[in-house]
Specification:
Elements (H helix, E strand, L loop, with lengths): L7 H11 L4 H11 L2 H18 L4 H8 L3 H13 L3 H10 L1
Helix pairs in contact: 3-4, 3-5
Pfam families: Trp_repressor
Protein name: His repressor
Organism: Anaerostipes rhamnosivorans
Length: 95
């Protein structure tokens, strides 16, 4: 993980997120924490990552998610060269 993100504020935020126990609690917390646009952007990136991992083309991903090619490219870069955070979550979601 990048040292840029490892701030005390980020650590406290992640500690707070780890206290959430249900999807409804997540909706409640993130609705307070994020704007609608921020939450939609996060959800869109996650959907893009999921589709790219399933080997969908950029065109298919763009059509289904409405994401720009720049966003798709950034997510793809994270999937290929990032910290493997997406892979960690996808593996856990399969269980």
């Amino acid at each position: 993980m990048s040292k840029k993100i490892k701030t005390e504020a980020a650590k406290r935020l992640f500690q707070a997120i780890l206290t959430l126990e249900t999807q409804e609690e997540c909706f409640t917390f993130f609705e307070d924490l994020c704007t609608v646009n921020e939450l939609e952007s996060l959800a869109q990136r996650f959907e893009v990552a999921s589709m790219l991992r399933e080997k969908h083309t950029y065109l298919e991903v763009a059509e289904k998610t409405g994401a720009s090619t720049a966003t798709i490219s950034r997510v793809n870069r994270s999937l290929n060269y990032g910290s493997d955070g997406y892979d960690l979550v996808f593996k856990r979601m399969k269980k």
